[in-house]
Amino acid sequence: MTRAIWPALALSLTTGCIVYEDPGVPGGPNHAPFVQQADAGCYWDPVYQDDIVYFDATVTDPDGPYGVVSVWADFYDSRTGAWVDTFDLYPTNDPSVWFSDWLGRSTYVDCYYGGYVVDITATDNADATDVLSIIPATYPHP
Fold first, then answer.
1. pTM for this one?
2. Which domains are present in the chain?
3. Would the pLDDT of 108 be above 70?
4. Which residue, among 31, 27, 52, has the nearest Cα to 105 in the 3D structure?
5. CB proximity list for 108: less than 8 A, separation 6 or greater
6. Rounded-to-integer distance, Cα 142 and Cα 138, Å
7. Residues of the chain with pLDDT > 70: what percent?
8. CA distance 100 to 138
9. Residues 6 or more apart from 7 whose CB is under 8 A from it?
């Protein structure tokens, strides 16, 4: 009986230890979230008598549907590279969909300016991030 143990013992000594990994256990490897799609732009709201700056994004995390803890949008002037404004997006009943609307008068966004780029950034509970850059829908210049 002891002769049967020797090959297994010899094999484990030559290859080192055997390490198992359970990705569902906290402390396992983290995978960054993924911004699958996003949309941003402006529309006129007759009730508020103001432009509405809107955002929506679909964000997934390979580590689970509730791994994403924040999503935000950064507006930049694509001609100068200058930062214009930042907006938080908020989760919906679907953990992969994030959304927000902002009154135009509360922002620095000019809905008639066509030179913006928007970075949609998602962060997970381990501070890993993903960024998707998009061109927002603004009005044609008058």
1. 0.77
2. 30-134 (2.60.40.10)
3. yes
4. 52
5. 75, 84, 85
6. 12
7. 79
8. 16
9. none
The contacts of residue 133 (CB under 8 Å, 6+ apart) are 117, 118, 119, 120
Both tokens assigned to 34: 């993924």
Mean pLDDT over 43-54 rounds to: 96
Contact assessment for residue 108 and residue 59, using Cβ atoms and an 8 Å cutoff: no
Q: What is the DSSP string of 43-61?
A: EEETTTTEEEEEEEEEEE-
Q: In the chain, what is the greatest distance between 2 CA atoms, to the nearest angstrom?
A: 90
Residue among 122, 130, 118, 131 at smallest CA distance from 39: 118
**What long-range pairs does 40-49 form, CB within 8 A, spacing at least 24?**
40/73, 40/118, 40/120, 40/134, 40/136, 40/137, 41/136, 41/137, 41/138, 42/104, 42/109, 42/111, 42/136, 42/137, 42/138, 42/139, 48/103
Question: pLDDT tens digits for 53-94?
Answer: 999 999 999 988 889 999 999 999 999 999 999 999 999 999
**Side by side, which strands form the sheet with 34-45?**
34-45, 50-60, 97-103, 83-91, 68-77, 116-124, 129-134
